[in-house]
């Protein structure tokens, strides 16, 4: 397992907004700029109203970024059936949705048994308290800050309260999970994410669709440095 845990918050570029005709080049560019994680959004057209890609695409990301953490977010029904294929394709982190897992403890244990880091995600309307029974087990908590299914959506500001509550719970209980915001992270929302305790900030269109990616990355980095100082 290659789970990089940077000491400061960081941007995790989401390939959902990359140019799939030049996916390897886009991934290598993000890594060269300093991305410690590459985020892969897997959608099945059932759990969310969109269909994206499967293990072969994750394998291509792994090939393009052999030393970078590959963060796979399974927005799918019955994710326990697809854990092994995505792990075999190179996923270092496998995140499943609490809403899709009737036996969440078992699914998290399955992920750990495969040698991967385990993440658990919740939709914007799901209260963070549903995760309390498993928070001591997980490596990443994914706060969906848009309704999952499509890129380029508007950040839902009410989700910031979940991050604050999870940060407090982690401190009081001696846990070590990483708090991730997924959806709508942009130059306009990153300050609020950082203030609420976000550590892994998934940016798709805000990075890959930027007119100048290097300039956008520098802007994100400046805001992170300011928040961490």
Explain the overall architecture:
The protein has helices spanning 23-33, 55-64, 83-89, 104-113, 160-173, 190-196, 205-208, 213-228; strands at residues 10-13, 37-43, 69-75, 93-97, 117-122, 140-144, 178-182, 200-203. The protein is of the alpha/beta class. The protein is 34% helix and 19% strand. It contains 8 helices and 8 strands. It is globular and about 45 Å long. The two termini are 30 Å apart. The mean pLDDT is 95. Helix 1 (23-33) packs across helix 2 and helix 6 runs parallel beside helix 8. The protein has one domain (10-228): Aldolase class I (TIM Barrel), CATH 3.20.20. It has an 8-stranded parallel sheet with strand order 1-8-7-6-5-4-3-2.
CATH topology: TIM Barrel
Computed CA radius of gyration, to the nearest angstrom: 16 Å
Strand order of the largest sheet: 1-8-7-6-5-4-3-2
Order of helices and strands: EHEHEHEHEEHEHEHH
**CATH architecture assignment:** Alpha-Beta Barrel
| Structural domain count | 1
Instruction: Specify the overall morphology.
Output: globular
Helical content class: 25-40%
The major β-sheet equals: 8 strands, parallel
Low-pLDDT regions: none
Count of strand segments: 8
- Termini separation comes to 30 Å
Structural class: alpha/beta
Briefly, what CATH class? Alpha Beta
Any idea what the CATH superfamily is called?
Answer: Aldolase class I
- Note the total helix count: 8
Beta-strand fraction estimate: 15-25%
What's the rounded overall pLDDT mean?
Answer: 95
